[in-house]
Design goal:
182 residues, mainly alpha, DUF2975 domain-containing protein, transmembrane helix
């Protein structure tokens, strides 16, 4: 209801919102194609043990780093699931459906998968490094933990988005509840 009042007060015309949702959906589809393509490339390189030396190189954690390619596949797949939820929500918004519980649920799903993808991209290399260290012979055990500013920023932004969307979902629920009382 709050969102409908915002739309009626002229902050954004309904047709403008619909048009913006359609454009954003196209951008999300393009992003999904890039993410899936990168994950497929990393997966093929990891599975086949490729270390391409061609004119075009795409590296994940440096040439020959199979662990980083595996992490790229897993976190990329999770991010792709999130983008699919976003695309579904934007498709409904492009058809005129506004901040319904279905759309909030898909937005929540998007932010959840983005958050999980960020967590996996940080924790999975650590887990793989621990497994490799435990399976190595005595004297060869070494574990490396890396956590850079980009990882921290991705985790922070995705966590903030996740909790903001949860807040929006609660506001929508309260708005629907208040509308039923009146």
């Amino acid at each position: 209801m709050f969102y409908d009042i915002l739309l009626m007060n002229g902050n954004m015309q309904s047709s403008e919102l619909t048009s913006a949702a359609r454009r954003l959906r196209m951008g999300a589809i393009f992003s999904l194609v890039l993410v899936v393509g990168s994950a497929l490339y990393a997966g093929a390189a990891w599975f086949l043990g490729l270390d391409p030396d061609g004119a075009i190189q795409v590296t994940f954690g440096g040439p020959g780093n199979q662990q980083a390619r595996f992490v790229a596949v897993v976190s990329g797949a999770l991010f792709a699931l999130g983008l699919q939820r976003l695309i579904r929500m934007l498709g409904r918004m492009g058809q005129g459906e506004r901040f319904t519980s279905r759309n909030i649920g898909d937005l929540r799903g998007f932010t959840f998968y983005v958050l999980i993808s960020a967590i996996v991209s940080i924790l999975l290399p650590i887990a793989l490094s621990l497994i490799a260290a435990l399976s190595a012979g005595a004297g060869e055990r070494r574990v490396t933990f890396t956590f850079d500013g980009g990882d921290f920023f991705a985790l922070l932004v995705s966590a903030l988005l996740f909790f903001v969307v949860r807040l929006l979902g609660e506001a929508q629920r309260l708005s629907e509840e208040a509308a039923q009382i009146i």
